[in-house]
Design brief:
The chain is mostly beta strands and 131 residues long. The protein has helices at 54-57, 104-110; strands spanning 3-7, 10-13, 18-25, 32-39, 46-51, 61-63, 71-76, 81-86, 95-103, 120-121, 125-130. Helix content is 8%, strand content 48%.
Length: 131
C-alpha cells in the first residue's frame, strides 16, 4: 500500500514562500512520477508540477504555466521525499495541495501534468495565501 506524509502547508501573505514535503512509502519500484496537484474550493483539481523518474524520463520536471519561475519541484530519492518550493506566492495559489504518484509510463502516455496518470494520492495539505 502506498502511503504519503504531506507537510509544509500553512497561512502566509502574498509574496511569501512555503516548502511542501511529501514522504512516500510503499512504491513497488523507482520508476514512478511524483506530482503535486491542487484543488481550490469549487474548482477542479489541477496540476502544479511533476518530476519523473530518472530511468523513465531522465528526471524531467514539468510545471503549469502559472507557477513557472516561482515553484520548484525536487526529489530526494534516498529519503523517498518530494518537495515543492513555492516562492512569491499569490492569493490565487490558495488551495489544498496533493502529492501523487504514478508509473512513469502511464504519466508519459496520458501527459505528465494530467491527474489521470497518477494512481495513488495523498490526503492533502492546505495552503492559504492572504492578499
Amino acid at each position: 500500500q502506498v502511503r504519503f506524509l504531506e507537510s509544509g502547508g500553512g497561512l502566509v501573505q502574498a509574496g511569501d514562500s512555503l516548502r511542501l514535503s511529501c514522504i512516500v512509502s510503499g512504491l513497488l519500484s523507482d520508476d514512478y512520477a511524483m506530482g503535486w496537484f491542487r484543488q481550490a474550493p469549487g474548482k477542479e483539481r489541477e496540476s502544479v508540477s511533476c518530476i519523473n523518474s530518472l530511468d523513465g524520463d531522465g528526471g524531467r520536471t514539468y510545471y503549469r504555466n502559472s507557477v513557472k519561475g516561482r515553484f520548484t519541484i525536487s526529489k530526494d530519492n534516498a529519503n523517498n521525499t518530494v518537495y515543492l518550493q513555492m516562492n512569491r506566492l499569490k492569493p490565487e495559489d490558495t488551495a489544498t495541495y496533493y502529492c501523487a504518484a504514478g508509473p512513469t509510463t502511464a504519466t508519459l502516455i496520458v501527459g505528465p501534468l494530467r491527474p489521470a496518470g497518477y494512481s495513488d494520492w495523498g490526503q492533502g495539505t492546505q495552503v492559504t495565501v492572504s492578499p
